[in-house]
Amino acid sequence: MFSTSTYIQRRRELAAKVGSGIVLLLGNDESPMNYADNAYHFRQDSTFLYYFGIDFPGLAALINIDSGQEILFGDDYTIDDIVWMGPQPTMVERASEAGISKVLPSAALSGLLTQAMQRSVPIHFLPPYRPEHLLKLQALLRLHTDTILPKVSVELIRAVVSQREIKSGEELAEIDRAVDLTVDMHVAAMRMARPGMTEAQVAARVYEIARAANSEVSFPIIATINGQTLHNHYHGNVLKSGDLFLLDAGAELPSRYAGDLSSTFPVDPVFTPQQKLIYEMSLEAHQAAIDALAPGVAFREVHLAACRSITDNMKSLGMLKGVTEEIIAAGAHALFLPCGTGHMMGLDVHDMENLGEVWVGYDGAPKSTQFGLKSLRFAKSLRPGHVFTIEPGIYFIPELIDKWRAEKQHQEFINWDEVNKFRAFGGIRNEEDYCMTAEGPRRLGTKVKPKTVAEIESEKNLNMEC
Ligand code: GLY
Questions:
Q1: Residues with CB under 6 A from ligand 1
Q2: Which atom of ligand 1 is nearest to the CA of 261?
Q3: CB 379 within 8 A of CB 343
Q4: Beta bridge partners of residue 35, listed in sequence order
Q5: What are 125-180's pLDDT values in tens digits?
Q6: CA 398 to ligand 1 center in whole angstroms
Q7: Domains in the chain and their CATH numbers?
Q8: What would the pLDDT profile of 369-381 be if each residue is shown by its tens digit?
Q9: Closest Cα to atom 4, ligand 1: which residue?
Q10: Among the atoms of ligand 1, which is closest to the Cα of residue 431?
Q11: Alpha carbon of 248 to ligand 1 centroid (Å)
């Protein structure tokens, strides 16, 4: 937790931004795997953490903006709970660390909300993303589940996004630490991967490094020789000579701040000439995106800079043809980059995605519906304090190639015979984490992940010597 005053100040700002009514924030509950006492590892709701800092299940809070009263709802452990799980701070102690003086049992929440509704006081709540919250909101607010989403508070979403999107110095220090731990995870994978191992062995080592630092992973580890699948969580393959390995993994510190990096490296000590060619093209796109970063520049332009680089390079290989801007406007380049160049990061690896991409990444403006561009999660103008990933990739997805070819999509721009020569190539992604400052972009973390061909080959060969 940060200092008590941090949470008091955040809630004060939230109340001022929302203006009036009652803010209802739900913490997360335990989530059973197969019976109640056998739960997945607990993950607190990030907005609840941001305003209260309490990483404990079963809580809720009300902020009455008009009266200034703040109440934390939750139940102390019974002696049975303590026998099973050990002693815990009391609710009053937890509330006091968050700067809250009034605590009530969970059962009191419903009555207070009913009184407020009888007085027609607006109740602001966020979109639920867990089914138990949908059920709780249904019961607390006497709403049918179908009517809950239309009634979420846009004022509250906008207020939360406006605060959480600008990271403070103490948050940036945590994110730097998360990125450093993430670099350790990637370097270990780069060093160990070799023919005969399994993807699962590499993934296990990556997870071990996070756990040994009393941390978690910020999302399920992607450790694969099939990097053309964007979010491949299968770890059952054996690594073979000639394979490229894609690792996309991040640490989540005890404070819950995330890191998120991707690396692509050969299973062998060196890249093949074809791997080196495409890898260096992916790095050029990565650098084009970084070169476009500046305060006030829309992240959409950063994405388009990466698209231009990939398009020009695919033209140089004869896979695309025509005028670069026309290819991009039509979306034909998305055959190789069917996703966005980055997303915000913070307490969530895709920060605040549960609040809605249109509010988080677009300030309420509509998103594109075009294949490729529709997957850009973050498009708005960069401001000091924004934290985001840079992760353009080059992917050869046989199923997409075959579908577009059969449908004659973008055939004026695509040379299918040349594309087909690379259909078994796989996929490449490099990812780094940045924050924007008033002076320009800063790469997050103090450790540097090997990125160039020479750096990666040297890291792998270092290991072979020991
Ligand atoms: N790096 C994982 C993700 O962005 O989903």
A1: 219, 248, 260, 343
A2: 1
A3: no
A4: 38
A5: 999 999 999 999 999 999 998 899 999 999 999 999 999 999 999 999 999 999 99
A6: 22
A7: 4-164 (3.40.350.10), 169-465 (3.90.230.10)
A8: 999 999 999 999 9
A9: 350
A10: 1
A11: 7
Q: Which position has the token pair 């498009």?
A: 379
Which candidate, 125, 131, 134, places its Cα nearest to that of 61?
Answer: 125
Per residue in 210-244, pLDDT tens? 999 999 999 999 999 999 999 989 999 999 999 99
Residues with Cβ < 8 Å from 167, sequence gap 6 or more?
175, 346, 385, 386, 387, 435
Distance 380 CA to ligand 1 centre (A): 19
Report d(CA 160, CA 1) in Å as an integer: 19
Best of 206, 248, 351, 449 for a ligand 1 pocket test (most atoms within 8 Å of beta carbon)? 248
- Ligand 1 centroid to Cα of residue 228, in Å, is 14
State the angle between helix axes of 273-292 and 453-465 in degrees (0 to 180), rounded to the nearest 10: 120
Ligand 1 centroid from CA 353, angstroms = 12
- Order of strands across the sheet that contains 60-64: 102-104, 70-73, 60-64, 22-26, 123-124
Closest CA to 393 of 368, 361, 425: 425
| Helical H segments across 19-153, by residue range | 46-52, 79-85, 91-97, 108-118, 131-141, 145-148
